[in-house]
């Protein structure tokens, strides 16, 4: 079962019979290369919509008469390479839509007494015959009026009834494998008015003296005659040239993989006497001439080549054409000598003065040419030469100056080992191909150039547009291009096609941005997008250029780093501003000092206590402290020993250390509070250190003296400890009256003694 698929592929699965369950959904059924021997009536009855039935390379020896009866829509039937011993017209009676029928490679010896194909009105191509096929009878092709292609394997055909193929009114291309040379002439006579192109293989051309035309009258239809793998002699060639002239419609002769046994000793008198040839195109490919070095120069053929317009002799060891022969190709427009043995020494004889006067296209590729200057000089003798192909020769270094035909527009120098281009290249060119030459640059001034092919070179950038302003098509496929810019691309004002495929592209941000945003680039790039692949960065290697999108960080690394640096700077600036506003620096310094103080003993030994009190006051209150309070306390009886920063701090010692040491060497800390005190940073330090000590030792080491009333709003937020102490401890206020002042001093002295 093939399920719901319209194409059922059951080839090469070892089937012995047509599988069951074929439905009307199937349009293509492939049963090739199995072991099927018999096609039964019911096998294909349900496959009414079948368009193609492939049964080749089985072992089919019998087919029921109504096996194909339901296949009215069938267009292709392949029964080739089976074991059919006969061909029955009943098989094809209901195949009204059949266009292609393959019956070759079976074991039938003939097609019967009548036509098996009479009902196949739409037949377009027919393949039949086999090594046992020996007879073609009149009426075998009745019912067929038009064939696009007729292929007959008649390698052992021994009997052909005259007129058998005449029933087919028109055949575009007929191929017949024919070894019996006696039948060849009869078949040609029957096909004069029907076939357009006749191709004969494996024939040993006969010596035919009867006319190929005989009583037939024009106009004839046959235009091209091809011989493949055939055998000729000097005698058969001479006779064939004479006889083929009678077919006035014949315009093209072709010989492929043929063998000529002879030395060119042709009957020139008979050939000349038979008149002009109507053939315009001769193609000879891979002809083998035994002892070709003894071959004549074909003198006497001059009259037969005047009307020839296209001549191809390829892969046939041609090393020279005599000058006197070359001068008689007066109408030749196209000459192809590719894959031969032409060298510069013999080229001078082949293209002599006055030779090939009408030649427009010359192909000398894959020969033994080594000197471009000499080759160009020979070509300059061709006044109408327009197209020259000298590719696959070995020129190497080329000179700076060469002489070329003034009409030359197309030049192919691909695969010629040229390391560097010079001004030897003609400026008249419209098309130049210098592919596969390991070129590293291209800078020639070619103002008329429209197409430039630089495939398989070593270019790292597109050529400059200024020297080639009219370029329409450019190929730099398989070079060392990493990228190309918008400016380079747009400098070619008339560019319609650019083939830059198969290069190792560096998918940079600039290149990708250009590719993604350039309007219409997909219509210009040949092979886009499949053949444009990233080689780097590593993360996108192997990906199609058009599908790659790099991140902002990958594309603008410097900008992103700069932005990060700016952001970091702004954050630091913000932190500094916040720290300044909220005195963070002060807190840090305070914490550091406190940590240092914490490492010291909590309480100085009694012998180290030198003062009764450390006095913390603002410099603006120094007059009251030094002249009033110090005199009153230090001259009391007994006197109190006070520690003042002006008098008792150790010179050169860090002020914070002085504060800490002084507080630790004093039994009490006396704070003289005023508006000036809360504005002093050092007073803040002294208050905080005293507060640490107060809580560390859980005692009443702090004494507060309020020199003047302080508004709570006036106390800065950083004096949070002062607020706390004032809320939790009793403080002394400095009175204005003298009587109250005496009580003040008594209370202060009492606090210092406690």
From TrEMBL:
Keywords: Disulfide bond, Glycoprotein, Immunity, Inflammatory response, Innate immunity, Leucine-rich repeat, Membrane, NAD, Receptor, Repeat, Signal, Transmembrane, Transmembrane helix. The keyword Ligase does not apply. It is found in: Membrane. InterPro entries: Cys-rich_flank_reg_C (IPR000483), EF_Hand_1_Ca_BS (IPR018247), Leu-rich_rpt (IPR001611), Leu-rich_rpt_typical-subtyp (IPR003591), LRR_dom_sf (IPR032675), TIR_dom (IPR000157), Toll-like_receptor (IPR017241), Toll_tir_struct_dom_sf (IPR035897). Gene3D superfamilies: Ribonuclease Inhibitor, Toll/interleukin-1 receptor homology (TIR) domain. It comes from the Eukaryota. Binds MYD88 (via TIR domain). This is TLR21 protein. The lineage of its organism: Eukaryota, Metazoa, Chordata, Craniata, Vertebrata.
């Amino acid at each position: 079962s093939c399920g719901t698929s319209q194409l059922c592929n059951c080839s090469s699965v070892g089937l012995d019979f047509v599988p069951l369950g074929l439905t009307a959904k199937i349009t293509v059924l492939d049963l090739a290369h199995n072991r099927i021997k018999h096609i039964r009536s019911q096998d294909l009855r349900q496959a009414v919509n079948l368009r193609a039935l492939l049964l080749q390379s089985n072992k089919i020896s019998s087919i029921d008469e109504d096996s194909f009866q339901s296949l009215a829509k069938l267009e292709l039937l392949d029964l080739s390479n089976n074991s059919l011993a006969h061909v029955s017209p009943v098989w094809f009676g209901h195949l009204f839509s059949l266009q292609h029928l393959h019956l070759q490679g079976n074991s039938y010896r003939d097609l019967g007494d009548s036509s098996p194909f009479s009902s196949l009105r739409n037949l377009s191509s027919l393949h039949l015959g086999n090594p046992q096929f020996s007879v073609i009878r009149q009426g075998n092709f009745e019912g067929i009026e038009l064939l696009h292609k007729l292929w007959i394997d008649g390698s052992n055909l021994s009997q052909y009834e005259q007129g058998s193929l005449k029933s087919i009114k028109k055949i575009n291309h007929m191929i017949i494998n024919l070894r019996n040379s006696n039948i060849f002439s009869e078949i040609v006579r029957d096909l004069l008015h029907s076939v357009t192109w006749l191709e004969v293989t494996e024939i040993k051309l006969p010596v035919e003296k009867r006319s190929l035309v005989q009583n037939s009258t024009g106009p004839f239809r046959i235009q091209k005659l091809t011989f493949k793998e055939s055998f000729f002699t000097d005698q058969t060639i001479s006779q064939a040239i004479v006889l083929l002239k009678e077919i006035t419609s014949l315009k093209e002769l072709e010989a492929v993989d043929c063998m000529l046994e002879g030395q060119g000793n042709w009957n020139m008198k008979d050939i000349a006497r038979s008149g002009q040839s109507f053939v315009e195109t001769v193609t000879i490919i891979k002809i083998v001439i035994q002892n070709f070095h003894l071959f004549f120069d074909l003198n006497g053929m001059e009259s037969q080549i005047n009307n020839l317009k296209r001549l191809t002799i390829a892969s046939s060891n041609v090393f020279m054409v005599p000058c006197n022969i070359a001068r008689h190709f007066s109408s030749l427009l196209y000459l192809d000598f590719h894959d031969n043995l032409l060298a510069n020494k013999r080229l001078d004889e082949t293209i002599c003065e006055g030779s090939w006067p009408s030649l427009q296209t010359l192909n000398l590729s894959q020969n033994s040419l080594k000197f471009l200057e000499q080759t160009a000089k020979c070509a300059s003798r061709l006044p109408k030469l327009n197209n020259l192909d000298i590719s696959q020769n070995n020129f190497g270094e080329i000179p700076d100056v060469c002489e070329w035909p003034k009409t030359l527009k197309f030049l192919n120098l691909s695969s010629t080992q040229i390391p560097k281009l010079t001004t030897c290249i003609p400026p008249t060119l419209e098309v130049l191909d210098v592919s596969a030459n390991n070129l590293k640059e291209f800078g020639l001034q070619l103002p008329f150039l429209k197409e430039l092919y630089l495939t398989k070179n070593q270019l790292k950038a597109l050529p400059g547009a200024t020297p080639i302003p009219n370029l329409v098509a450019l190929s730099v496929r398989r070079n060392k291009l990493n990228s190309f810019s918008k400016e380079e691309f747009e400098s070619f004002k008339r560019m319609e096609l650019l083939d830059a495929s198969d290069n190792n592209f560096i998918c940079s941000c600039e290149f990708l941005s250009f590719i993604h945003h350039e309007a219409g680039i997909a219509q210009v790039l040949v092979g886009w997008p499949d053949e444009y692949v990233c080689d780097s960065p590593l993360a996108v290697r192997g990906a199609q250029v058009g599908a790659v999108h790099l991140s902002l960080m990958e594309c603008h690394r410097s900008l992103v780093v700069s932005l990060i640096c700016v952001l970091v700077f702004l954050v630091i600036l913000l932190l500094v501003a916040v720290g300044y506003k909220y005195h963070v620096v002060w807190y840090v310094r305070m914490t550091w000092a406190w940590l240092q103080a914490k490492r010291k003993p909590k309480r100085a030994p009694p012998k180290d206590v030198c003062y009764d009190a450390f006095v913390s006051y603002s410099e603006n209150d120094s007059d009251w402290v030094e002249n009033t309070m110090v005199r009153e306390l230090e001259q009391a009886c007994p006197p109190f020993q006070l520690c003042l920063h002006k008098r008792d701090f150790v010179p050169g010692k860090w002020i914070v250390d002085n504060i800490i040491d002084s507080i630790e060497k004093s039994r009490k800390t006396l704070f003289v509070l005023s508006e000036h005190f809360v504005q002093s940073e050092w007073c803040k330090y002294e208050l905080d250190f005293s507060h640490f000590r107060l809580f560390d030792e859980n005692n009443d080491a702090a004494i507060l003296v309020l020199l003047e009333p302080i508004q709570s709003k006036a106390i800065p937020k950083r004096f949070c400890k002062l607020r706390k102490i004032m809320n939790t401890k009793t403080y002394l206020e400095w009175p204005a009256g003298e009587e109250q002042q005496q009580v003040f001093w008594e209370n202060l002295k009492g606090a210092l003694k406690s």
